[in-house]
Amino acid sequence: MISQESERLTRIVGDIMLANQIDAGRLRLKDHEFDVAGLVRAVVEEMEASLNGREGISLELVAPESAVRVSGDEDRLRQILINLVDNAVKYSPEGGRIEISMQQREGSLRIAVRDQGLGIPHGEQQRIFGKFYRLDPQQARGVGGTGLGLYICRELVRRMAGRVSVVSREGQGSTFVVDLPLISLRAPEPVAS
Fold first, then answer.
1. Does position 142 have pLDDT exceeding 50, yes or no?
2. pLDDT score of 183
3. How far apart are CA 121 and CA 138, in angstroms?
4. Considering the domain boundaries, does residue 188 fall inside one?
5. What is the pLDDT confidence band of residue 138, given thresholds at 50, 70 and 90?
6. Is residue 190 situated within a structural domain?
7. Do 39 and 81 contact (CB within 8 A), yes or no?
8. Among 27-31, 39-43, 67-71, 183-187, which stretch is predicted with the lowest mean pLDDT?
9. CA separation for the pair 74, 86 (Å, rounded)
10. Cα(33)–Cα(36) distance, rounded to whole angstroms?
11. Dihedral over Cα of 96, 74, 46, 38: its sign
């Protein structure tokens, strides 16, 4: 229990420091070539191992077997994917299925994380990407967090010249979609908020 709480506090401090770097315009993304399909597979395997059969939640990957090579910041894209999958797990019912899909489109790459969870009310769907915003601030559903995860995801994706969005209906789950340019995931200069 001490180890788990220590990891949780480390993640919270890391999120706060990263949000501060983003806000101050000091975040610099790396730019090197990597295989996105391999990265997505590795994230799914890592998340499956951390689930360890917990609550009967299953992860399903729909991605090409072949490599999809891009240029960009592999570590930050990994962070985005882990956050989205972790949120899907947190908000999924017992026995729920989470699908992580990846597809190449003309000039872009789309990664989607779909869950069968609680869903997000229509009026809250844009607000969830705000800094420190929590859909359930009193944690009545027992889901903890700082309210920084989706803010960080949005800002990282923006700095990769991409877009993150959500499609959701209450009681029917959510799909978070990350669209990134396929030619290069390299970051433009920091975006002013």
1. no
2. 62
3. 17
4. no
5. very low
6. no
7. yes
8. 183-187
9. 18
10. 9
11. positive
pLDDT category of residue 132 using cuts at 50, 70 and 90: confident
Copy the structure tokens of residue 112.
């989607």
**Start-end of H helices in the chain:** 2-24, 36-51, 74-90, 149-159
Q: Which residue type sits at 91?
A: Y
Structure tokens at 130: 């705000």
Number of structural domains, the chain? Answer: 1
Q: To 5 degrees, how large is the angle CA 45–CA 50–CA 54? A: 115
Structure tokens at 164: 């993150």
Q: What is the CATH number of the domain that holds 33?
A: 3.30.565.10
Residue 186 lies in a domain: no
Q: What is the dihedral angle through the alpha carbons of 163, 166, 167, 169, rounded to the nearest 10 degrees?
A: -170
Is residue 172 within 8 A of residue 119, CB to CB? The reply is: yes
- Continuous segment of H or E residues that includes residue 27: none
**Residue 68 CA: distances (Å) to CA of 20, 115, 179:** 32, 24, 14
Domain that holds residue 121: 2-181
